[in-house]
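Complex 338.
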Amino acid sequence: MASEKKEIKTIGVLTSGGDAPGMNAAIRAVVRRGLGRGLKVYGIYRGYDGLMEEDLKELTGKDVSDTIQKGGTVLYTARCAEMRTLEGQKHAAETCRKYGIEGLVVIGGDGSYRGAQCLAHQGINVVGVPGTIDLDISCTEYTIGFDTSVNTAMEAIDKVRDTSTSHERCSIIEVMGRNAGYLALWCGIANGAEDILLPEKYDYDEQKIIDNIIDSRRRGKKHHIIINAEGVGHSASMARRLEAATGIETRATILGHMQRGGSPTAKDRVYASIMGCMAVDLLMEGKSERVVGYKNGKFQDFDIDEALAMVKGIDEYQYEIATAMSGGYKKDAKVKRS
Ligand code: ATP
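Predicted structure with adenosine-5'-triphosphate bound:
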């Protein structure tokens, strides 16, 4: 449960887990908001590794100038195995105490929040900011980096579609998202894909895809785009099986890490700035074990335990619309608004 704690004078900020475009805007906001409110702000390098190795630096406002437009994270990021152990968590908390860090802003995904929760159990105030391209944090409808990532993937898929049409091919394009299908769902709608395979929905019935490819070819379609989520995977072997079954040349393209890079969109810069400032404000209010989110049109904070306990599913109405746009319009749509 969240707890009210005493006012703080020094905070730290780190980025953890996979990097996401817009993380720099959030770091910049934490630093400048913190300095503006009279705090000392430490930047901790390489996520929780920086606390293990005392790799941290007091930041000035200038240290974060010229960063809002940059992809990646200027604090670097890492996956820190030691943080999963009680010994590591105590070590991380000791480093915070040594530098007087009473409040920590953790920018990352749900794994990073679990690390933050462990630090809170060791007496450090923590606030999480959702930084992940996967949009897989249940309490929020927005995560930093998703907007840039989906736009990057969309542009790449448009290019694959051009060559797919020229060669009258079928293309399977695998997008990131780990076990979450939101990136694939959005690319599916934005790119007008014929099939969208999501880990939350896919029934592994390849015959349906084969029938769909053959049917769309009969209707005169020159291409067939299948967006496959990372959580389903196996695009190369799927392409071989589909080609063998349909006789239509089928290629797999895995977009990979390019989806993490690039200059953040305006939305990612603005939302990340608001969320970074809000994290500092929450710490200044004496709050801990909270995560910042965006829900029902508002920036809000949530209890970290509740945020981690909730399971994020695919929005059924969005999924139904994606299916309807990809050829489901021929059938009777079961429309149910959520
Ligand atoms: P992304 O969604 O982009 O992968 P993430 O924050 O979920 O981001 P993880 O690799 O799951 O990425 O977690 C990042 C780091 O958080 C881990 O390397 C580890 O240091 C810490 N962490 C993850 N899970 C736990 C846990 N259960 N207990 C303590 N620390 C954890």
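The mean pLDDT is 94.
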